[in-house]
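SEQUENCE-TO-STRUCTURE ENTRY
===========================

Subject: a protein chain together with a token-level encoding of how that chain folds.

Sequence line: the amino acid chain in single-letter code, read from start to end.

Question of interest: how does this chain fold, as expressed in backbone structure tokens?
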Amino acid sequence: MMGQLLEGSSAVECYQKGIEIMLKEKEEKETLKVAAACKNDRDEFTDKALEADPDNAEALQIKASYHLSKDEIEEAKELIKKSVSLWLSKLEAADTGNVADEDFDPVDTCPLAYNARVQCGKILIEVEDELATDVLETLLDEDDEVPDVWYFIEWANYLQGQEFYSNARHYLLKGKEVYAKVKYDDAGLLEYRV
């Protein structure tokens, strides 16, 4: 519109700017379409995975995360608890040595990778489930030099109320130690409070 009101190089600049804006808007719309398609594919594949194996811990966790993103807390809580029920007790038994060597299969014990279990802990914190501390403690047993896990377990304890504040403080201080020890590079992580 401005290009029609102006003359010469000013008019050309306005037209070029208008074209740039239109191209950017088109690109943003295409990005949103791709994101929506990916989300639909993810939902479809998760549903198919659960149809094939209703006890697929990872698919249950992904579905829980999806429900959490839609603020469907109860559905998310139900799904994440089912996911955890499939592996946590086996992992805790293996950690304490209560599994015979011939019965021990690390993949069967816990089919989820470390990072997936970190995400599980985060979901449990968000749905305010006390299982979060159990899951996060198994992660510390496996690798106690991951600052995120210390801070998540601190937060999970803090959310359980005043009687858990001393536990939360312990985990916070230990998390700060680990943060410094491993030279962790996430300044936002240090903004935690207790």
Q: What stands out?
A: The chain has a mean pLDDT of 81. The CA atoms of residues 66 and 76 lie 8 Å apart.
